[in-house]
Amino acid sequence: MKILKYITVCTLFLSFLSSCDKDLVGEAKDLEEGPTKGLPEDDSLRLEITTVTHEDQMGSFYDNGIVEFQGKIWSVAGYNSYSLPNCNSDIWSSDNGINWRSVTSNHFGARRGHATAVFKDKIWVISGINTDASPWVEYGDIWSSTDGEAWTQELEHAPFGHMFYPSLTVFHDKMFIIGTSSSDEMVVWSTADGISWNLEASSPFPKRESHQTVVFNDKMYVIGGQTAGHAYNDIWSSDDGATWTNLTLSGDVFSRRFGHGVTVYDNKVWVLGGTGILTGPYADLYYSEDMEEWTQYTDLGPSPTPLSNFATLTYNGAIWIFGGYDNREPIGEIVTLKAI
Fold it and tell me: How many Cβ atoms from other residues are within 10 Å of residue 264's Cβ?
């Protein structure tokens, strides 16, 4: 709880700093409508960057869980400016990532900072917190849906308790949740069915929240994150979820950050945006083919928007970026990055 409150205070503090001194983090600007081409220094990789919508049916949004399921993209809970209260349990779906339809709401408690994944032909939602409630409501429950409309509470009290901004990843036919438990310990738990859970590791690396986990080349990788007063730019790898190794990074190593995006695209792992403790959010992009040697993609167009707490998804041959928080407020942009 202490760490989650720190995230909220940090966000408000950054908003204050940006209003007083825009040079500290850079002024937030809209991406130019339509495609622009960004070229790295070595001219070996080109991305076409397109803003597909500025603010559509969902309004501005951040901290939403975004997954691909049954041929559609789904947005699950989070913050939406068109919802009252803004922290909600709304479910939205889209056939193309651009046009969205409201599916349902109020099947489970309103929340953000939750974890969302697709596993065993279901969408899963775990943990989170309702920051619009007074006092805040902390969740340690597990929900699932076979169609995105009807939801079932699988567990009211997960064995790891409530978590804030954990990661939820499918690996080797299991689902892994990685985060700081309600007992304030960094833990890795796994499940083969979403109901029975096994503790894989306790304190395998420094505790953190708002990190990202990705599967690449048959290993899981935990990237970045933060604990109260400290952000990370480290990467930890595991081939079983139990034993973890701290990688030695080289090249253009990204700065310490949390609330960033990570995805696999074009046989590379990409790290996008995020924010530091007293700097950010960032408008930068890094990629790696081996998780150790990193390269910064140096041109994101004339005016990229610094972002944190957005959702990232590889979909339809491109990287998609959904919503997020710039250095002032939530935004409603959906942007694609496509190799050309």
Answer: 14
